[in-house]
Amino acid sequence: MEYATRIREKLAAGLAPERLEVVDDSARHAGHAGADAAGETHFHVTVVSAAFAGKSRVERQRMVYALLADELRERVHALGLTTQTPGEAGA
């Protein structure tokens, strides 16, 4: 299974997001540390979820990292995150 798919499925199951975007930015990082010609090493993820209510930015990131621990250990080198509640996102 592709890593982008795994990321989507785990975040959808763990955070019940109202909005979820997973963008593979690997091509933009060719030649950088951790980059692989096969791709799927650098991602930007946007998650809008009520599960983030009352949580700091760091707490939100830790929630995402915990859900994606296997992917981060196996292949994903960089993960950019935008984490918002529905109210913050204007949803």
TrEMBL record:
Alphabetical list of InterPro entries matching this protein: BolA, BolA-like_sf
Domain of life the protein comes from: Bacteria
Family: Belongs to the BolA/IbaG family.
Name of protein: BolA family transcriptional regulator
